[in-house]
Amino acid sequence: MRDLTDSEAEAIFIRVLAIETSLLELRAELKELAEVVAETKEAVKSLSNICRRDRVRFPDAREERAGKLMKPRLLGHLETAALLTPRDDGNSVPKIHLRPWIVGSNSSDADMKEVQNQRIACGWNYERVPIWQDEIQRGYRRLWFIHIQTPEPLGEPAGMISLNLYDPVDSSVANLRAPPPHTGDRVEIGSLFVYPKHRRRGIGEAAIRELERVAEEVGADTITMNTAAVGESMRRYERMGYRQYKKERKYPLEVVHALGLSEDYCDAAFLEKKLVV
Fold it and tell me: Is-contact 163 216, C-beta < 8 A?
């Protein structure tokens, strides 16, 4: 058996270091996953208490887990639609500025904290913040902080909104950045949130209008979103030119009843608007 040359020994050493680095990264990812699992368990426990209080029973553990995950998403859809409520009489729509969330080497800890705070404030999709970071870095999503323009420098954000350029699960939602040959012309508005103190001023609608302009700039022909398939939620978007293109049963009946809502709220309406006529 011959001795290794210096170059061979160095190559092996470098390879071992690379493997050790990969193991460290994997350990960190597993730790993050464990934290997400722990948070999910807490959410499951919380909704279970609500269901027991209201005498709602899930037939089995699988439906109970699904219910815990769907509750915040349903509430989020309802809140997003509520952001489009008519503004108070006498108040003009303020001018807004959309400041992009920069991730990667130039990312800001303050911006990361702000995203997390907004997701906590609205009560849903907190667990998806790391996924959004990855999607932004890969060019599949863009996210902005909503600021109200004033003569002074930008203050604290009034809310946030995002544009999804590719949904690998449902191409009818967003496929502009889908890999060929599946590339299309659709993008999706999501993650809309406005702090309560800034609502009823038209900020939510102004942010949507601004993203419609951005969508055209990036080459989209159609913009989509989804909401609870109920009358008032639908009418708010219809007034902005959106039309339903499909409806899906998305929320378990037990979760809907636990929230004191009718069965109509089990369905999600998927809406679209043509940007290029």
Answer: no
